[in-house]
């Protein structure tokens, strides 16, 4: 007798269930998707004991008659596909016909459905076997009641976590689909606790306000971009509002929740060097694309997708977010920038004397009006072009630089953008300008250098010398002309022009240390380069104690608003905030 044999239907169903049903949240996801595909305007979710004891999802969709309800419990039975060609352009959330039979194989399931009020059917299933079928007077729609999940698969049940953990996963999925379908009413009850009660709303902003709170939703910036028939839109958190926790990014493709590397990388690039390390912005992003250009059948739980033009999709998403983050709407208000004591210095920020913290009041006035022209060293503000940033074009009203009014305590520029007073941290602003200019030069292999009149001999520790030897091409790309000089000594003959006014030996040592830390963290070449450029730009930027003339303030602001992200420095700290005319009038009780 041969060794190969066909598995029984019972084993096949359990294997299929293992692919589709991982935990109670998987059940909720599949059932909610079916409800949305049925055209429901209301979805009610009831969970007990984290979903281990019971999960019920009820909707007011199109419903099923008795024959369709019975077929829906068969594997690969679906109303959403009719021929093989339909797989090439799937527009529904479900399509495989696996959800109900997979769930029923590992639970006690009660399906109740009606296509017309008062005329319905009720089907009871236990471990994949139909126990009873009967008529029932039901309202239009479908209700799926799942009890004792994994009661017949104890090995799977013992891997479930605590009630709190399981309900958190359920809530996460309910929240995602509530965001994706704001016009649908969603409710979620866990035992006696009402976790969600969201009426349908006409806008994503309205749904976000109910989910995140009105204050948090107000700080999200709408974005939208259409290109070649595709559209990306949603809400983006401002860089200054990034939080020290993951999980605040919600990605959707044609209404489907996805976990996609292409989209995630595009989001990361749009926010590159605008948020501090270890902090993550909130993003609610929708991609609407021709179903024929995306394959949704590449993951057992339909969480991943594959794009036929992945690079094009990546650039569409990145450009949409980047253009929005560079506009005036992304500038925070004063009340949005009140961190706790532990968050006042962003990770990776330089020492206070270089960050530009408020210095002691100068001997004369604490502020200087634009008419005062003090003599100071020349400031390199870069070559930003008006109205452009990062290869993207912007409306002039979003990108116009504010007009300088005064300098406060030698550290901050007060300016007028026509609607509000803008307060700018001059050190952080100049750091952003120099960072983008220097990074562009380095990536193009055209970093400007300045030869040293007298070469510098820099003594390094053995491990530092090893770092230089490993990354010598990167240092040369930055503009350092160097060579070994015997022992642990390196000779510098030229330095980046950007850093011509700083202690070249001290800067080189600091960059070597930064490179060493990046190597320890297994950073990529791009990450290392950005960290080195960030450090160099910080050291070369104007300091908090540097007085600026009116022309220098105006030039700095013009260059700042031509960068890709004028709201944060490369370390992720805020560069500026706005105090609107309305806020000022309210403060003086004129409104």
Structure description:
The chain is of the alpha+beta class and about 600 residues long. It has three domains: about 10-200, 2-Layer Sandwich (Heat Shock Protein 90), CATH 3.30.565.10; about 220-325, Ribosomal Protein S5, domain 2 (2-Layer Sandwich); about 345-590, MutL, C-terminal domain, dimerisation subdomain (formyl-coa transferase, domain 3), CATH 3.30.1540. It has an eight-stranded mixed sheet with strand order 5-4-3-6-2-1-7-8, covered by helices on one side. Strand 4 and strand 5 form a beta hairpin. Helix 1 (about 10-20) crosses helix 4 (about 100-105) and helix 13 (about 425-445) packs across helix 17. It is elongated, with a radius of gyration of 30 Å. The N and C termini lie far apart (about 90 Å).
Which short descriptors sum up this protein?
591 residues; 19 helices; Heat Shock Protein 90; 8-stranded mixed β-sheet; 5-stranded mixed β-sheet; 33% helix; formyl-coa transferase, domain 3; elongated; single chain; alpha+beta; 25 strands; Ribosomal Protein S5, domain 2
**What is the CA-atom radius of gyration, in angstroms?**
30 Å
Helix coverage percent of residues? 25-40%
Which topology of the largest domain does CATH recognise?
Answer: formyl-coa transferase, domain 3
In the CATH hierarchy, the architecture of the largest domain is 2-Layer Sandwich
The total beta strand count reads: 25
Number of domains: 3
**Name of the CATH superfamily of the largest domain:** MutL, C-terminal domain, dimerisation subdomain
- CATH class group of the largest domain: Alpha Beta
For the largest beta-sheet, the strand count, sense and barrel status come to: 8 strands, mixed
Gap between N and C termini: 91 Å
Unreliable spans: 80-84, 340-367, 371-378, 384-396
Total count of helical runs of at least 4 residues: 19
C-alpha geometry: elongated
Strand content: 15-25%
Cross-sheet strand order for the largest sheet: 5-4-3-6-2-1-7-8
Compute the average pLDDT: 83
What is the SS-derived class? Answer: alpha+beta
């Amino acid at each position: 007798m041969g060794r190969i044999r066909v598995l029984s239907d019972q084993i096949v169903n359990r294997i299929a269930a293992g692919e589709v049903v991982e935990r109670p949240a998987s059940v909720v996801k599949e059932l909610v998707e079916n409800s949305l595909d049925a055209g429901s305007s209301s979805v009610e979710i009831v969970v007990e004991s984290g979903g281990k004891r019971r999960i019920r999802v009820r909707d007011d969709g199109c419903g099923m008659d008795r024959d369709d309800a019975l077929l829906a419990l068969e594997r690969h039975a679906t109303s959403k596909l009719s021929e093989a060609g339909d797989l090439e352009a799937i527009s529904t959330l479900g399509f495989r016909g696996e959800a109900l039979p997979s769930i029923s194989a590992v639970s006690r399931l009660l399906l109740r459905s009606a296509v017309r009020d008062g005329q319905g059917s009720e089907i009871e299933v236990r471990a994949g076997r139909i126990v009873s079928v009967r008529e029932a007077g039901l309202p239009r729609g479908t209700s799926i009641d799942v009890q004792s999940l994994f009661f017949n698969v104890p090995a799977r049940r013992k891997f479930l976590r605590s009630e709190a953990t399981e309900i958190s996963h359920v809530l996460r999925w309910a929240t995602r689909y509530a965001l994706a379908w704001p016009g649908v009413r969603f409710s979620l009850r866990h035992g006696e606790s009402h976790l969600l009660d969201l009426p349908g709303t006409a806008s994503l902003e309205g749904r976000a306000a109910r989910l995140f709170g009105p204050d948090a939703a107000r700080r999200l910036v709408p974005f939208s971009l259409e290109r070649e028939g595709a559209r990306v839109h949603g809400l983006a958190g401002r860089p200054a509002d990034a939080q020290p926790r993951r999980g605040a990014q919600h990605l959707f493709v044609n209404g489907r929740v996805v976990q996609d590397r292409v989209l995630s990388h595009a989001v990361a690039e749009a926010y590159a060097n605008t948020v501090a390390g270890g902090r993550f912005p909130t993003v609610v992003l929708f991609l609407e694309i021709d179903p024929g250009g995306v394959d949704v059948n590449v993951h057992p739980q339909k969480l991943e997708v594959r794009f036929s033009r992945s690079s094009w999709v990546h650039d569409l998403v990145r450009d949409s977010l980047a253009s929005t983050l560079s506009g005036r709407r992304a500038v925070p208000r004063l009340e949005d920038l009140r961190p706790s004591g532990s968050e006042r210095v962003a990770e990776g920020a330089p020492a206070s004397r270089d960050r530009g913290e408020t210095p002691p009041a100068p001997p004369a006035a604490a502020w200087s009006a634009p008419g005062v022209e003090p003599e100071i060293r020349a400031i390199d503000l870069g070559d930003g072009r008006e109205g452009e940033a990062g290869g993207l074009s912007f409306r002039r009203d979003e990108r116009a630089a504010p007009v300088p009014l005064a300098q406060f305590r030698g550290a901050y520029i007060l300016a007028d953008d026509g609607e509000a007073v803008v307060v700018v941290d001059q050190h952080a602003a100049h750091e952003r300008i120099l960072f983008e200019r220097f990074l562009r030069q380095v990536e193009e292999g055209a970093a400007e250098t300045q030869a040293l009149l007298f070469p510098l001999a820099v003594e390094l520790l053995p491990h530092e010398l090893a770092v230089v030897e490993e990354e010598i091409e990167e240092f040369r790309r930055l503009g350092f002309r160097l060579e070994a000089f015997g022992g642990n000594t390196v000779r510098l003959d030229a330095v980046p022009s950007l850093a011509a006014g700083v202690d070249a030996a001290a800067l080189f040592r600091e960059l070597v240390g930064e490179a060493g830390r990046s190597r320890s963290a297994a950073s990529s070449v791009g990450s290392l380069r950005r960290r080195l450029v960030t450090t160099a730009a910080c050291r070369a930027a104007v300091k908090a104690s540097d007085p600026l003339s009116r022309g220098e303030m105006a030039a700095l602001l013009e260059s700042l608003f031509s960068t890709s992200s004028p709201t944060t420095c490369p370390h992720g700290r805020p560069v500026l905030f706005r105090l609107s005319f309305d806020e000022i009038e309210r403060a003086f009780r004129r409104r």
